[in-house]
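Weekly puzzle thread! Below is a chain. First person to post its structure in token form gets bragging rights.
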Amino acid sequence: MAKSAAEKTEPPTPDRLRKAKQEGKVPASQELPLALTLGTMLLAVALSASRLWHWFSSQIEQGFTLGSGGRLDLAAITDVLTSRGTEALTTMAPFMVAAGVASIASGVLISGWVFAPKAVRINPAAIDPVKGLKNLFSARALVRLVASIAKLAVMIVIVMTYLWGRFDECLALSWATPLASLTVIMEVILGLVARFAVAMVFIALLDVVYQRWQHRQDLRMTKQEVKEERRQHELSPEVRGRLRRMQIEIVRKRMLHEVPAADVVITNPTHVAVALKYDTEAMLAPEVTAKGADYLCEKIKEIARAYGVPIVERPELARTIYHTVEIGQAIPEPLYVAVAEVLAMIYRLRQQRRQGVSGT
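Winning reply:
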């Protein structure tokens, strides 16, 4: 009975979806940006085909006639390359801008505008090698592998089918003029790109549907979670506020109970206190077991003194940890050296005390 109650069988509620979006957890498709970018580029080429063709053909003609006037030195080549490069950038700039706009629009289409500062915080769990290996051999990784193989197969079929249909035309290029050959080559390339774009649109649509479904699967809730959320909505603001204060008080008491087991308390020294613990066998990095400001700061220091936990004054380090690391989380990598120096000092003092006691 308890097992069935803990299973996540219920679809996510609007509140759950809203909180997930605030944390940056939104459905994301890797295929949609590629499809939109490719389609936009193809549309831009189609709308300016005559101008592009005139530019390309003029470059080819001028390339063949380079030096026909008898001047073919380094300065002449440099002048030609500079002018051609400027023209190329001017000609291709609209296409690059269109591709960038399409890439941004793809993210908005699938999940709307998302501003989630929480998503850019360093999460030590995300770089856990054990979890990384599990994800590598997960069902989701298998789905991605099958999808990649299927996409590659579709592209190969498109290329083989299209080129086979124009096989005779491609063979005749060896007898054609350079301009005629360029015309056929451009037609083949545009034909392939157009077929790729159509295929990518269908693949992207399937991927968007799958990603939305997978996103909702990941956010499923237990029956108990749904009941708790419904009860929260049904309670009056006064009751919700009282419950919230009770929850904060419970968390605060639980946090203060962790102070005696800490290895060190780093202080501001009067406004902020942070308790750290580091178990080399169970932790990848030191973790924050308690933190507080003002009254809680004094309370943490009081408990630390009562239980003999070292208190170290490092104002900047204390403020940084207090504002960037939550209770129960490991410190981020940029703070490793600063925290390691503090812990090394504490361990060295403990060792000196032990040696002093044993010597007496």
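Puzzle host: Confirmed. Bonus trivia for everyone else. Residues 82 and 193 are 29 Å apart (CA to CA).
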